[in-house]
Write a structure and sequence with these properties.
This protein is mainly alpha-helical and 85 residues long. Helices cover 74% and strands 5% of the residues.
Length: 85
């Protein structure tokens, strides 16, 4: 099966947004989580390192999921492959 130009554009955009969101996930999970211990300041009344580990990373994860779902719904509609509701 040969991919059309429309399919290539769809997958190109899909892979690009997935790569960007995975890079954000990696940064929040490993980089920020690792260096948060060295950031000694209060954030919403808690030490920043505790806040990142307990709540901050989870907020970012939910934001990533929300953005990906919204972006892919629009991309599906743009390329005519959206599910009918």
């Amino acid at each position: 099966m040969q991919l059309t130009e429309k399919h290539r554009q769809y997958w190109s955009k899909n892979l690009r947004i997935t790569s960007i969101l995975l890079a954000i996930w990696f940064f929040v999970t490993f980089v920020l989580g690792y260096f948060a211990r060295d950031l000694n300041f209060t954030f919403f009344g808690w030490p920043f390192s505790f806040w990142v580990g307990a709540q901050g990373a989870l907020v970012v994860y939910v934001g990533i999921i929300w953005y990906y779902a919204r972006y892919m719904n629009r991309l599906d509609q743009e390329h005519g492959v959206a599910e009918e509701e």
